[in-house]
Amino acid sequence: MTEPTPAGQSGVVVRSTVFGRIVRNPLGLTAIVALVIIGAAAAFAQVLAPYDQNFSDITNTLAAPGGEYILGTDSGGRDVLSRLLYGGQLTLASALLCASVAILIGLPTGLIAGYYGGWFDSTASWFANMILSLPGIMVLLSVRAALGPSVWLAMIVFGILLSPGYFRLTRTVVQSVRNELYVDAARVSGLSDLRIIARHIMSVVRAPIIIQTSIVAGVAIAIQSGLDFLGLGDPAQATWGIMLSDGFRNVYLNPLLLVWPTLAIMLTIASLVLLGNAVRDALEDGQKITAKRRPAGEKKPSRSAALPAVEAGTEQHLLKVSHLAVGYPQADGSIKTVVDDVSFHIDRGEVLSIVGESGSGKSQTAFSILGLLPDTARIVGGSIQFDGTYTVAPGDDTVSAERLGALRGRRISYIPQEPMSNLDPAFTIGSQLVRPMTVVLGISKAEARARALELLAKVGIPNPQRTFDAYPHEVSGGMAQRVLIAGAISCEPDLVIADEPTTALDVTVQAEVLDLLRTMQRQLGVGVIIVTHNFGVVADLADRVVVMQSGRVVEEGEVLDILRHPKHPYTQTLLASMLEDKQPMTKLTVDAAAGGTA
Amino acid sequence: MVSFTLRRLGAGVVLLIAISILTYSILFFSSANIARNLVGDQATEEQVALKEQQLGLDQPFLSRFADWFMSALSGDFGRSWFTSEPVAVAIANRLPITLTLVAVAILLTAIVSTLIGMLAAVKRGWMDRAVQVGAVIGYAAPGFVLAVLFVTLFAVQLRLVPPVSTISPGAGAAAWFTSLLLPVIALAINAVASSAQQLRSAIIKQLERDYVRTLRSRGIAEREILFRHVLRSAAPAGLTILSLQFIGMLGGAVIVEQIFALPGIGSLAVTATSAGDIPVVMGVVLFTVIIVIVVNLLVDLVNGWLNPKVRVS
Lengths: 598, 313
Prior knowledge:
The complex is a heterodimer. Chain A has helices spanning 18-24, 26-43, 45-48, 80-116, 118-132, 136-147, 151-178, 181-188, 193-229, 240-249, 256-284, 362-370, 401-407, 429-440, 445-458, 464-469, 477-489, 507-524, 535-541, 559-564, 569-576, 590-597; strands at 319-329, 335-346, 351-355, 378-386, 389-392, 412-415, 495-499, 527-532, 544-549, 552-558.
């Protein structure tokens, strides 16, 4: 079993520049080196190339590689290597032109549309959608028919065609930061819009633009080569596309001619894509969690082995959590512990409340019981037993999906915090209630339907049939929470875990939902774990309380004891922050007001 | 729903008219030497003038466009200046080939990229990394480069398929299959590479939604959550990705048809634009845009139908 890593160790993050991280990424470095070599070879073609691109040795056409012509000659007796180098010039320059045009149009319009919105936004978005629905090559063919075979013109037009990509990207990014607090703060402090855009917004847009450009440049190279391949370019200028076309025409005589331009095109585009990926990875590095590495010599605990028996004398507890620790592996190999050495138990028909502020690990504890932790989470210590059987045996590092699968819905159920996002918007409320009952209880659809209507009435929904037929967006938040409570009790579980069940609701609705929870708990006699930060909820419902801070249990006891005699300073702070105990405010009298202004 | 459809249809018609005007006005400036090219170098100035008059080239822009537009409205797209074949007939003969090519390729892309995207999203780990690597390779090989390699390898070197298509509107199924197999794959590989990755992100985004966790807590099996809920929620994003791929393929088909010598819209477009055959170019552009509009409309309708908020109202 892994020892829980001490908290704090995970906080050590090696800060490095984005460029540094790209260079340290082997693929990123390869891509940069390849692009630099390709770029330099093209830029210095005049110096490097042994022959002029159009110098033709008529007596020596389609020569094999080696000898005087290192890569051989093409059908016109021209040196393949020289043409490859010169071809890079035009191909890379046109990709650069295309990307520049696209950025010059897409970036400013995206900034303005995202920052100011309004009519400009709607007009520009309309244009962007229009351009996106044009088939690129068809447009380029028409332009060529109209204005002649100019590579530069074609690339400018293609740049315009690709500009919606930048427009959309910039607009989305700007919209997402426009209302961030730091942008508001900059605005309030009197910075001009121009300076806000230059300082705060450009820094956010920069990285996605680089990534997009790596893709756009690749597409431009493909299209430019494609046009030249079709013979729609300028035949006097060597490009990779023209070389490919020459090779294709002579495929029976010298298929090797195809290899060089193909390699050049594929290597360049692949390097661009890899560079884009490397930039993306470098930016995401902060949040990236690498796959878990096991310390050498440690063997994976076998799941098929028989479960050890739980500690004698604890079988009667409905749920017992012992020394539970939950952590998340970090990029640097350490484990960030969010729940540490947490122990408590709950018996049938009991209401236990886990109290703490956000980040105290209370929800993580609840999700460990349900087996609904994110994939990256690891159980780094302790055990959980339900009704005398381990769901997390000592030594397990994840919650067994198999064991929990048999319990979830059937014996343990869950009431979430935010009612609206916890119903699938695409299905009716009725079908979301009926399906679990047919799966878990094995009853027919008609039976489940009757039961669902009954449940809806039971949780205080005035017109069960209408709510049953409704989609989630058609009911209010309070109503949706009642639906979720109905869902949680629909299969007669032994334990209900409610994660902040009233936090997202209006104050008036909160009281009703708490009433409902209490009534349900008494009628059904189920055990309930309520996760909350609100001592009002605790006082209202709970029999016992577990107070958590920074992933640890700081105090546990009967609800009345804790409310009256909190021992731990943290509990005292939590209690003191409630309004109930405060002195009523004195009325603001004329005297006081007069005194205040004197 | 009806008004939604009508609005989209209206927007499509506006787009169509806008593009017709734009294309026609660009092409207008290019038609200066057409008459001379048609009658030949030896022709007299009178003959050139006569030809210009026949084609209506002596008319001002507005009246030329109005003429074309009115006859196009009545289904008459004119005749090719070079072959005298009616444009509508030329397109009708070639459209089935291009549409079959693109439709089969997009279907293949949809199936393969959904499968790959789903596996990468659910399994993560090595599968995920393999998809990333595959995407780079797929991106790096433009469709036409693949087409060239396929012809070289399978037709020229291995002689498994005929290097030039034997397809024609009346040909049998076997000819269609052998003629379209390689072009379809050449078109689809690039599309699969980019859409599989985008579909992966769309599916991961849905898997992280709150309701997925709640469904799990209710005892619904992982497989059912994935196929019944997650794929359905990711469908609108997926369809939008595929509709953009479809537009890209219409362009890609132009070059791929040329390589495999498929007598589709693409080769018609290349010949017509090289020669400056304005009626044919206009016809090709118009039909392509109509296809794009219809596909986008279908995607909007399906997405609207998938979204209960739109469907109910």
